[in-house]
Prior knowledge:
Blueprint: E1 3-4, E2 10-11, H1 15-20, H2 46-57, E3 68-71, E4 76-77, E5 86-87, E6 91-95, E7 110-111, H3 112-115, E8 121-125, H4 131-134, H5 148-155, E9 160-165, E10 170-175, E11 182-187
Parallel strand pairs: 4-7, 8-9
Antiparallel strand pairs: 1-2, 3-6, 4-5, 6-8, 9-10, 10-11
Amino acid sequence: MATVMPDGNIHPPLLTELARASRARLPTMYDLPSEEPEEPGLPDEFHLYQPQLLRETFQPGAWPPERVFVGSDLNLYYSLHNTTWYKRPDWFAALGVSRLYEGHELRLSYVVWQEQVPPYLVVELLSPGKEQEDLGKTVREAGEPPTKWMVYEQILKVPYYVVFNRYTDELHFYTSLFGLNSLYKFDFLA
């Protein structure tokens, strides 16, 4: 997992950096906000029902259900150097991670530096006004946190990123496996 530095450059982490960053010094899910008061919440009922359907149907065969964490509209903290930076995907799955925080508590957020496992799959459900951000077409301003695209592709190196537009029935499927970033676009109305 790479890290965005305050100067905006992206640097891959050193393994020793994670080893040196003890739990006692880094914020945990209890220390980081779980909701942004200015955010309006879910934009429509589709954003409530679709993640539930994904949660119920995503069952990777090689992993027991208790080792697959699925998050919906949950803060995803990703930067050791900017511990308050997060993205909030509509839905994501991390493999090999307990469904419960430390084996016994529901999660308030997902903190990548604690789990040391980035998401395996991220799904964004397009909302009016968010298309450019979700499809990786926005430009990051100096001093601002990285865009979703930068976080998912360059920092966390998420293997699968899916964007669905329910208004046009277009499904954008990106994969970064084998060091390639491929786009497959499906139009279900055609």
